[in-house]
Design goal:
Shape: rod-shaped
Largest sheet: none
Radius of gyration: 30 Å
Mean pLDDT: 83
Order of helices and strands: HHH
Number of domains: 1
Oligomer: single chain
Number of strands: 0
Distance between the termini: 116 Å
Length: 150
Amino acid sequence: MTDSTIPDYAAAFQTRHDSCRRLLHLSQAQHILIDEGHFDRLIRLLAEKQTLLESLGNLHSQFISPVDRWRKDRETLPNAVRQHCEKLLNDTEQILADLIQQEQSAAETLTTRRDQTRDDLKAISGGSRIHNSYRQTATTTSGRRLDVRQ
């Protein structure tokens, strides 16, 4: 295979690699925003992340063909091209593994906060019910007094 007939695997793999790396950075920023409670900024970040995920979805459909050709051609490619492409693919897989861990951690943090908020609301609700009970008791018994002078 001559250099002029080699498909540009590296460019396709690099595009996917860069998109996955950007997604990981967004996920890390997401976790920071969750930890700091900046939910207004989190919404904007999630919109950006959604846009990137959609472009990755489109890229994935374009990526299938080069990967299929790569599997057939990789042994016939020049050693330097093959090694570069394999490094990109391995790095991308590591980024995706890191991304999965980051997303799981963010989901756990959000779940913990949700549960804490639910418990806080239950406590507040319980306190309100007790307060209402005392208030009702006070209004129904306020007319009754024990006259100790008799």
